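input
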Amino acid sequence: MNKAVAITNTNNSIYTSTRVLHRTLERRQLIPEHEQVLWKIQSGSVRALTWDENGVYTTLGYWGVGDIVGYSLSRVQPYHLECISGVELASIPSENLHENLDQLLSRIQQTEELVSIVKSKRVSTRIWQFLIWLSDKFGRDLEDGRLIDLHITHQEIADVLNTTRVTVTRVLRDLEDEGKLRRHKRWLIIRA
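output
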């Protein structure tokens, strides 16, 4: 009979149950590098990122509840998986990987969508399409639109879309003036 083993430290908590590893991480923590472990996000949000020789970051994707992440899913180096909120993860035992093919296919499709958005010529189009992409992935419906349930700064949007924070702020203001976007505190609400 398999018994659960509990291990706890000050940075995060881990516990195993049969052959599934569970991990709880805090905002801004990195998911530890385990090449052979794939994680299913139970709660929270994660971003995949890399950086160049000058230390300039490139966001490769945003992942949320139900998505699968892991270092073995990328050949990009350097590569980190950073928690952008508190995150709960469960490992996927290799014998159960076939049960998660839909999530893996969805990951590929979402990555292709993001690449397509980043390659749009007009910055305003890039920003609007990225907001729609985020609302599809992290949104929840409200009476007057779709709230993007993800804390993302103007600088982080600029970094993903290869533009400046000032440009992002200007375009968001323009979208708000056009009635396509509403801001509520730090939240964005799409009104498409």
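quick obs: Residues 1-18 have pLDDT under 50 and may be disordered.
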